Amino acid sequence: MVNEAMKLAENLFNNDVKMTPTRDGYGEALVELGESNPNVVVLSGDLTESTRTEGFKHKFPDRFYEMGICEQNMVGVACGLSMVGKIPFVATYAAFVPGRAFDQIRISAGYNRSNVKLSGAHAGISVGPDGATHQMMEDIALMRTLPGMTVIAPCDREETRKATIEAANLEGPVYLRFGRDKVPEVTTKETPFKIGKANILMDGSDVAIIANGPLVYEALDAAKTLRRNGVYCMVVNMHTVKPLDVTTLVYAARKCGAVITAEEHQITGGLGGAVAETLARNNPVPQEFIGMPDSYGESGKPRELMEKYGMSSTAIIEAVKKVIARKASGRIFAGVL
Amino acid sequence: MDIQNLKHKATELRIDLIKMLEKAGSGHTGGPLGMADIFTALYFGGLVKYDAKNPKWEERDRIVLSNGHICPILYVALAHADFFPKEALSTLRQLGTMLQGHPHRLDTPGVEISSGSLGQGISAAAGMALGFKSDKKPNKVICLMGDGELEEGSCWEAFMTASRYKLDNLIVIVDRNYLQIDGHTEDVSCLEDLDKRFEAFQFNVFRCDGNNMEEFIKTFEKASKPNGKPSVILARTFMGQGVSFMKDDHSWHGKPPNKQEAELALKELGGI
Ligand SMILES: Cc1ncc(C[n+]2csc(CCOP(=O)(O)OP(=O)(O)O)c2C)c(N)n1
Ligand SMILES: [Mg+2]
């Protein structure tokens, strides 16, 4: 059922699937990078433990900078550090970087083409009880409008680890996004990962589900259920929102003739928007959007909120049915003409 | 209320705070405990004009919580002041609650501004004070802030607005507990000398023991006398004040007590 070449976790669909937060992979990668590259430095905005930068802090105290609560300044300082040869990783919540520091990111990081690595932890509604102020649902939209910015929303701990390592080796500004809550470990050490190269995790020809972040697991889960009803979905892990893997996307749209985008982000401006913009130019097909329906979040348990705002496998299944109906009616319409 | 009753009230607030946070299973405990005395003074010491039955009353003073994460103590104070039934406290942070994890103006009567992203409430407070001043209205604006919060540069932009427009209807209260998430404020950043900094920003600067009811009330009365300058009260508080094993420990910044911890805390507070 799943694409063998992707070497996904074997227990992916079992109850014993390992659950870890993506940010753990960030912390692990920073320690690895600290060992391998003396230029890697970390800046924390009074959120060292929750962004998982503690390991780096303890191992490399001289390369760890506690900045306090000043995200705009922190981004600016990181840009300065990059100008003198450092590879700074900026660690705070996505609500504040990019949320608070957008102008600094636009000019100091983007326009200057600084080699800074921004990380937005606790992104998405699955932040849970802290409520709307902390549930950043607009970060991908902000970041992907900036020329030259690389934007990555990894799906699990291991993919986050790889993305963080690759980000350090890529020249230029990068935005990495992680969540707070535990999510299933979908990928393994052997799963291929390359920034800008989407992974087809499951093949199919009825609908292509283009997902990233925690919605990758939900998409796989939905596709598995749909298969039992004779609906074959392709599942694409579009971890890099910018630069978007146009080749894989257009291939998926051509093969399936309909797409669903699925992300833990506002429906406007995120992965769904990027896919729609690309397909409109290259190969328009019916598209349904799974994401936050133009609303602020609220307090609640992560799972409750993902269900309430339609970012679960249940919602994906409904969207697949809808888009198949649209695809069919399109064919009838074309036939009548 | 007289001082004795106010002290009683502060303990009642702390008891409900602990119960509420234990039930919620997440939320901030340390800051709210440290600020319980000040909230009691503000809401029950006759220092602030409000009408719980008419929360939008035009003549009310505005209490702005810029450090939104300490909202549990605001919620308990509002419930005790009858803005809403105390039963609501047990819904903190649950789906559908009127008491969000960080305060939301549109959900909770008595909340003047939605906050949780540090360093924003103070600008809104300056805006309110500027509006009242322009309209020659007597309303006061009281803005509560964390000390770590002062590391946000935008706070100092707001302070400049406040002194530029001589907002002597603005009283800033800084929860000076010397702690924030990653530790001591002077290890994380560099806030001192706060008196001198605020003086340089043309504020009237007051210091007091923020866990001493009488002292705080006296200080507040002085700070709220208009003299052409905004005022700041640097209130020395202790994170976790009132519960021995939480006191002055930054690990209590953002977590709730579990069942056993809540029981111990309530025992100390005389709540069980
Ligand atoms: C703009 C912004 N950055 C970071 C945070 C995360 N955060 C919440 S509370 C806090 C520490 C605040 O310290 P302080 O103001 O001293 O409050 P205390 O810990 O004393 O309650 C931080 C960093 C935030 N809420 N907003
Ligand atoms: Mg503090």
Give structural notes:
The complex is a heterodimer of chains A (337) and B (272). Chain A contains 11 helices and 14 strands. Chain A is α/β, with parallel strands linked by helices. Chain A has 2 domains: 151 residues, Rossmann fold, CATH 3.40.50; 166 residues, Thiamin diphosphate (ThDP)-binding fold, Pyr/PP domains (Rossmann fold). In chain A, strands 3-2-4-5-7-6-12 form a 7-stranded mixed sheet, with helices on both faces. A 5-stranded mixed sheet of chain A has the order 9-11-10-13-14, with helices on both faces. Chain A has a two-stranded antiparallel ribbon with strand order 1-8. Chain A starts with 18 loop residues before the first strand and ends with a helix. In chain A, 61% of the residues are buried. Chain B has 272 residues and is α/β, with parallel strands linked by helices. Chain B has a single domain, classed as Rossmann fold (3-Layer(aba) Sandwich), CATH 3.40.50.970. In chain B, 39% of the residues lie in helices and 12% in strands. In chain B, strand 6, helix 9 and strand 7 form a beta-alpha-beta unit. In chain B, helix 1 crosses helix 3 and helix 5 packs parallel to helix 6. In chain B, 54% of the residues are buried. The model of chain B has no long low-confidence stretch (mean pLDDT 98). Classes of the chains: A alpha/beta (337), B alpha/beta (272). Chains A and B meet through helix 10 of A and loops of B.
